[in-house]
Design a protein that fits this description.
Blueprint (H helix, E strand, L loop, with lengths): L3 H17 L8 H25 L4 H31 L1
């Protein structure tokens, strides 16, 4: 992935879900879904806060826009796909 902070986030979520997969009780599915949603909201809030508090140069602005686009087009759908089997059970 082109943006290491987003890769770290996805890797952390994937690792956590992989650890839970073999032994998580079904009663945790809503808790897991809620926590993942909170994590995605925290990333979104951080990006918004960064955008409103920083003056970026053009090249930095383009890179930040690319980061935001990757979050919306890659990270969010990937996390939704990881969550989907949890919600279906």
């Amino acid at each position: 992935m082109e943006h290491p902070p987003l890769a770290v986030f996805i890797n952390g979520v994937s690792a956590a879900l992989n650890e839970l997969r073999p032994c998580a009780p079904l009663s945790l599915k809503n808790v897991i879904a809620h926590e993942l949603i909170k994590g995605l909201q925290a990333v979104s809030d951080s990006l918004l806060r960064y955008n409103t508090t920083r003056m970026l140069r053009l090249n930095e602005s383009n890179l930040f826009l690319s980061l935001c686009r990757a979050f919306v087009e890659v990270v969010f759908p990937h996390c939704a796909n990881m969550l989907w089997p949890v919600v279906l059970v």
